[in-house]
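Before the break, one more example. Copy the sequence into your notebook; we will annotate it together after we see the structure.
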Amino acid sequence: MTGLISHLCRCVAVGSLPALILACSSPTSPTSVPSILAHRAVWNSHRLANYSYTYEFYAFNALANQPLRLEVRQDTVRAVVVLATGQNIVPTYFPTIDALFDRAILAAQNGSLTRITFDPVRGFPTLLSYAALPDALLSQQASALQPLP
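Here is what the structure looks like once it is written out:
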């Protein structure tokens, strides 16, 4: 019990709710549902409805293995641009940050999530790696997130 009280005191000393959630609510590995939910709470605390980010995924697909810039407005991907060519892509199947969280939780629950990392400030997933399955998504990356007006 003393160890728990000491741990909680260290968490409270951090001084911010997101840090408290991250430090105290992840009793298991980063690929656990509680850890993912704790990071999602950090993400939600920023209340970003409009943002853009660079997205990459690794799978057997013509758009795989190249950076794409996604523009999200009101939790819907509105535009996708291939950074290398400037080509506009239909945004229908590309994920918002919330969708990345949903995918991470589902993969953690079914045991296919092998690795996940998070942005240290905003808490969103920056890398999701999955167990290798034929013709399946192997990993996803999110980076360079920018709020939009």
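Residues 66 and 124 are 20 Å apart (CA to CA). The first helix runs from residue 2 to 14. Try to locate both features in your own notes.
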